[in-house]
Amino acid sequence: MKVSLATEMAPPFVLVAHFFIVGIIFLFLSGIALLFMSVDISGYIISSSLAAFSHLYLLGFVMMVIFGAMYQLLPVVLEVPIFSKDFAYVQFYMYVVGFSLMVSGFTFGELHLLIPYGAVITYLSMLIFCFNVFLTFNRLKKITLVSKFLLIGTIFLFISVTLGLLIGLSLGHGLLTIDIDAWVKAHILGTLGGFVMMIVMGVSMVLIPMFSLSHDYEEKWINASLYLHSFGIALCMITLIVKLPFFIQAIAMVLIVLGILCFMVQITIIFQQRARKQNDYWVKNVVFALICLFAASISCIFYFIFANSTLGILSGVLFFFGFLLSFIIGHIYKILPFLIWYERFAPFVGKQKVPLLHQMIHTKVADTQTWILFVSVVVLSSGVLMQFEKLFFIGSVLLLLSLILVVFNTVYVFNYKMRENEK
Amino acid sequence: MIMTEEDIYNAISTVIDPEVGFDIVSLGLIYGVKIEDTHVNITMTLSTKGCPLHELIQQWTKDAVLKVEGVQDCTIEIVWEPAWNITMASERVKKELCG
User: Which Gene3D superfamilies would you find in this protein's record (chain A) (predicted)?
Assistant: First the structure.
């Protein structure tokens, strides 16, 4: 069976690097914003510090990295080129400008008037992303399991950002008379559960077997996860907005948790089949991320059963820092060296000595960073559970320290290239 | 001078997968080498379908083969059947990867 080379249609990796580098900068800034969050651990309140941090972290870091990963993986996975690379660049710059305005408004009270303008620009940039993805899918002849995840995730993004804009306009201009709390929850659920989780699940099915050299495993668990999770998220969002009886919301939550459990079982099976047995910082991060995802799911279930806001926040901490941060940083250590290597070293293969990808990462710093991150998640979670603000603050400092080491390694990857070129 | 299969394999074994750190012959990615006069046909696979190095590894392989004395042309065919697995790798690779 002869197969065409999908990477002939891949976008320039420099575009992907744009998203990764800026994402890491915003991650560092979100770590600083977290230091001011200790007062918010006593309950779920929509404060400006929470808004600043959550948007910096989720929109600035998580979404930015996911956009970059999507632009890199879509052509490879779908075997069709991105509909428009120019749209991707326009989206990047609009996103950075709009998002910066919005976060400035959240962070500095006197700049709050910038929020709606920033939100509209960010919204438009996300629309560009969504339509770029939809139009790319329009070229597709055969839809695979991974592409289903990417497509459904993008549909959730489209719905969620539209909800976000309607919430903003209703708050600012009284556009709609809505239950803001329920709509915000639907917006968060659609973005985190619908877009972020669906993309993470789909991308995992490419990256984890690739980096662990796993083969010959069944995909029935991830297949089940696709339907359980997407249906659960959609049902839960509808329940929140239309105000259906609580038991329907409970059913939706069960579907979501079952979907996440199926995903975890699938990844465990892939890991069991891996040919590459070394437990490096990538493996540690992925395993820790899965443990935290499980703990976050359990905590979320108890939050719904007992309506205990502490458990809700604990679930958020475990999901944000334990799962998402570990998972993404683990993969940044794999992908970032590749992006730099591809631009700077690939042309010299066969002509001069070029580094291996793992050599471009400072291993000791990455290992140290990984352990500090794990400890910080434990300390942050303990701070929330014990309602102990100082402990939460210590956890935030540890997390920031861990992020400084991520920034160090990012700079190290670039410097590695420069030192080699000087030789 | 007529090149041998061994010459071709030796040339291809200079191509290293920068992610895994082993050459593609030791990894077992080369399924076949066919020499027809000055033309060489390589049948190979990759360890994963979603590999972003897909195109580059093919190019490096071709460049390596074309360096062999007597080779004037080289065709690379990427196949996915049979799918690669670790049993196809050399004992050294298996030992180092699997511990």
Answer: Cytochrome c oxidase-like, subunit I domain
Task: Collect all residues with Cβ–Cβ distance below 8 Å to A81 and sequence separation of at least 6.
Answer: A9, A10, A11, A75, A136, A139
Which pLDDT band, with edges at 50, 70 and 90, does A6 fall under? very low
**Closest-CA residue in chain B for A11?**
B52
Q: In which domain, by residue range, is A282 found?
A: 278-414
State whether B48 and A278 contact (CB < 8 Å).
Answer: no
pLDDT digits (tens, 9 = 90+) for A177-213: 788 889 988 998 999 999 999 999 999 999 999 999 8
Q: Minimal Cα–Cα distance from B80 to chain A, Å? A: 7
- Using a pLDDT cut of 70, give the percent of chain A over it: 93
From chain B, the residues in CB contact with A354 under 8 A are 18
Asked if residue A383 has pLDDT above 50, the reply is yes
Whether residues B55 and A5 touch (CB distance < 8 A) is answered with: yes
pLDDT tens-place string over residues A357-376: 889 999 999 999 999 999 99
Domain count, chain A: 1
Q: Which of B23, B45, B46, B54 to mutate to test the interface with A (most CBs of A within 10 A)?
A: B54
> Which among A8, A77, A334 has the least Cβ separation from residue B55?
A8
Chain A residues 25-84 within an 8 A CB cutoff of chain B: 72-73, 76-77
Looking at per-residue pLDDT, the higher value among A166 and A5 belongs to A166
Q: How far apart are CA A91 and CA A94, in angstroms?
A: 5
Instruction: Give A66-117 as a DSSP string.
Output: HHHHHHHHHHHHHSS--S-HHHHHHHHHHHHHHHHHHHHHHHSGGGTTHHHH
Rounded to the nearest integer, the mean pLDDT of chain A is 88
Domain regions of chain B by residue span: 5-89
DSSP A275: S
Distance from the Cα of B40 to chain A's closest Cα (Å) equals 17
Closest CB from A76, A216, A356 relative to B85: A216
Q: Does residue A184 sit in helix, strand or coil?
A: helix
pTM of the model: 0.89
Separation in Å, CA of B6 to nearest CA in chain A = 19
Closest alpha carbon to A276 in B93, B59, B73, B75: B93
Tell me how far apart the 2 most distant CA atoms of chain B are, in Å. Answer: 42
Question: CA–CA separation, A104 vs A118, rounded Å?
Answer: 9
Among the ranges A166-170, A226-230, A253-257, A313-317, which has the highest mean pLDDT value?
A: A226-230
**B6-40 pLDDT, tens digit each:** 999 999 999 998 888 899 999 999 999 999 989 99
Could you tell me if residue A125 is inside a domain?
no
What is the CATH number assigned to the segment(s) B5-89?
3.30.300.130
Q: What is the mean pLDDT of residues B29-58?
A: 88
Segments in A108-196 forming alpha helices (H): 114-138, 145-173, 180-188
CB-CB under 8 Å, B97 with A213: yes
- Nearest CB to B81; choose among A1, A278, A342: A1
